[in-house]
Specification:
Blueprint lengths: L2 E6 L3 H17 L4 E6 L1 H9 L5 E4 L17 H8 L3 E4 L7 H8 L5 E3 L10 H6 L25 E7 L12 H14 L4 E6 L4 H10 L5 E5 L3 H8 L2 E6 L3 H8 L4 E5 L4 H4 L6 E5 L10 H16 L10
Parallel strand pairs: 1-2, 1-4, 2-3, 4-5, 6-7, 6-9, 7-8, 9-10, 10-11
């Protein structure tokens, strides 16, 4: 059995944008042992979706020697890297020190892919380009992740992630409050799942304090595999340009995403169930509350087959 190693650091969104490349590898080499070396809590998504047979943490102290010139490479890691017939690395390695040490360790058929994304084409396509060296060509840039349980959407449950990796990508909190209040008042059966990570604690706590309601639940800093399972059972997801938005789209949840300075043609999930809202001035302040509620209403009409104005806007 051939063995393939994919090395991928980066945040949640960076990894999910690499999932189409992983899918391409799995489809091309269904009987190969594919392993992913990365941040354990993130790359667990690949094992969950059976793109990887196993994962290993990149946060391993002896691995630091591979980033130094002339270092004594640990025997265990030399054996580990040498056990793969194909290694694909997306690590930032501007001086090629890591790549040189991989080759010294016996890594065969090393492919080095840059983690830097340009404005030329969708990020998933750029991340799959290195696989063309294996005659593999990406057709569909949409990431697909598959939690173990089947998807069973709850029509009353809407997920909201009010944060992102940077303040410039966040919609004003006052508008999120207005949206949540409108959604709850429009339908007495509706429930909201507020999602937050480590960087979103303050925003989520402020929302919960202002919106004390038993119909507002909170999913704070959940393991990504668990969060994926919860997201797939929501009827709709609202968020920003963030890794959680990529996760929601990848598990099949229809998503309305608010974009400002970042280009959705490069960074938005490529899934068909995604609608992007972006203001002409490319700022988050330029997106009005009414636009978001209208988009939710259009989704509700599409789901129910009703014609005419949505009850959300009433």
């Amino acid at each position: 059995m051939s063995r393939i190693l994919v090395i991928r650091g980066g945040a949640i969104g960076d990894f999910i944008l690499t999932v189409p490349a992983l899918r391409l590898l799995r489809e091309a080499f269904p009987s190969s042992h594919i392993q992913v070396l990365g941040y354990k809590h993130i790359v667990a998504l690949a094992e969950m979706s059976r793109y990887a047979n196993a994962t290993r943490s990149i946060e391993y102290a002896p691995l630091s020697s591979f980033f130094s010139n002339g270092a004594q490479l640990p025997t265990e890691l030399v054996t580990y890297f040498g056990s793969f017939q194909q290694v694909i690395s997306y690590l930032f390695d501007p001086d090629n020190i890591f790549a040189a040490n991989l080759r010294q360790a016996g890594a065969r058929n090393l492919i080095v892919g840059s983690p830097k994304i340009t404005d030329q084409e969708h990020a998933a396509r750029q991340l799959a380009r290195p696989l063309e060296q294996l005659a593999l060509y990406l057709e569909d840039p949409a990431a697909i992740l598959s939690p173990p349980a089947p998807r069973e959407p709850d029509p009353s449950l809407i997920a909201i992630h009010p944060g992102s990796g940077g303040e410039a990508k966040n919609w004003p909190l006052s508008r999120w409050i207005a949206v949540v209040e409108a959604l709850l008042s429009a339908d007495s059966n509706r429930r909201i799942l507020l999602i937050g990570g480590e960087a979103d604690v303050a925003r989520v706590n402020r929302l919960r304090a202002i919106l004390p309601n038993e119909r507002v639940q909170c999913a704070q800093s959940l393991p990504l595999v668990e969060l994926a399972a919860r997201l797939q059972n929501c009827s709709l997801f609202l968020g920003h340009d963030s890794g959680i938005s990529h996760l929601a789209a990848a598990v099949g949840t229809p998503s309305i995403l608010l974009f400002g300075p970042t280009d959705p043609a490069i960074w938005a999930p490529a899934n068909q169930n995604v609608k992007v809202l972006r203001a002409p001035d490319l700022t988050m302040n330029g997106i009005e509350t009414l636009q978001v509620l209208t988009a939710v209403g259009e989704f509700a009409m599409g789901q129910s087959g009703r014609k005419g104005p949505s009850h959300i806007m009433s």
